[in-house]
Amino acid sequence: MTTYRSLVAGEWIGGQPSPHLNPSDLDDVVGHSALADAAVAEAAVEAAVQAQNVWQAFPVAERIAILDRIGSQILQRTEELATLLSREEGKLLAEARGEVARAGQTFRYHAHELLQPQGERYLSTRPGVEAEVRHRPLGAVGIITPWNYPIAIPAWKIAPALAHGNTVVFKPAELVPALAGELSSIIHDSGIPPGVFNMVLGPGPVVGETLLTSVRLHGISFTGSAATGRHVARQCLEHGNKRFQLELGGKNPLIVMDDADLDVAARCALDGAFFSTGQRCTASSRLIVHERVHDAFVDRIVSGAEALRVGPALAPDSQIGPVVDAVQLERNLDYVRIGCEEGAELAAGGARVDEAGNGWFMRPTVFTGVRNDMRIAQEEIFGPVTAVISAENLDEAIALANDTSFGLSAGIVTTSLRHATEFKRRVRAGVISVNLPTAGTELHLPFGGMRGSNHGPREAGRYARDFYTQPVTCYTAW
Fold this sequence. Notes:
By secondary structure, the chain is of the alpha/beta class. It folds into 2 domains: 3-247 and 444-477, Aldehyde Dehydrogenase, Chain A, domain 1 (3-Layer(aba) Sandwich); 252-434, 3-Layer(aba) Sandwich (Aldehyde Dehydrogenase, Chain A, domain 2), CATH 3.40.309.10. It has helices spanning 38-56, 60-76, 78-89, 93-113, 152-163, 177-188, 204-213, 226-238, 262-274, 294-307, 326-342, 375-378, 394-402, 417-426, 465-468, and strands spanning 3-4, 6-8, 11-13, 16-22, 25-35, 119-123, 129-137, 140-144, 167-171, 197-199, 219-223, 243-247, 252-256, 284-290, 345-348, 365-368, 385-391, 409-413, 431-434, 454-455, 469-477. Helix 1 packs across helix 7, helix 2 runs antiparallel to helix 4 (93-113) and helix 3 crosses helix 4 (93-113). The termini are far apart.
């Protein structure tokens, strides 16, 4: 049985052991995490601060080689890491393979992104003066990640942070210590200097709070809930006025127009709402359907949801895996009760699937007759639950889509170029899809939302540099 420990200044540090169970099979103990205390987190911050000057001055060619080795090693271990991911988080094996591959590709991408132009030269208005803008590392940064993408989200934060010369203290979610431990081991074995990368396992109120209140860190990159994000922002401002980047929740709409191919619409909705057990911030949790095709679409989405096979993540015939843990399952079922109390019609699902095995399984759930002011249409549920809302026309559909505190992802299914163009122009979301599921990103393109879904620069691609570096304007007289 593997015990995963914290990594501080190149050394593995133990702590109070805590078991972690497979959400598909509660008799399967995936491993133990040695929970660290605040003193270990403080030591990790100190190690990152002390290593900053070394890493910033590290030869670029060697930094590129280290990042490339990390990415290559992740890719070489895809099957092993994907199986561990499925056991630990409950993601289907095919989805887990894709996530691991994305993580490896992300490190390799940012390794070679360093060979792109890193500054700008400008004409000065003063005779005999040259002007340039250089991008310096932000410094020692804290990275706090969620459980739903336990290797991909850490990769798309850690890789650009290291690439641009920052040192890192990584705090993973408590539910996924195994993937964090394996990723940290790969980074540790890459030849990276001690202290440049540190990982601390432990609860948010202890480890996370230590990072937030440290005045020695220069920035915090956080992905998680909107409520926790507001706390992160307050703590960063009050303790050292740290830069912070927040990727928060979503209540993402998928509009289905009356000219849509309903088979395409149903596929987009089923993928966006239910795959990854709906545990994605980009999930299609509101299906806004033109009234002329409402009933026909509902027939398709309900029959499609009921046909999905719920089962263990490693079972080859499973199409929907388990919910991550008992707390999340009960939260999902609470929202089912709330939706019924609000007057929505439970058209499919809404219950546990006990016959699927000894795990946290839930049937894909569809509500119809939903008003956009209902809680199930406004609050992020983070489970396999979606709500169908009727709209009279495109204008009403876009108004409904925008009527939320979030603004992460949005989609439309239509065969009309005019409808697609209007949607892309008017919908308030950071990621927009036409005739595709709302859940889907690419590592070289910016990712982030608007309003309550995001604060700070975008993640991914070359846009990641905007958070992890500081522009410095330099003037030279000659």
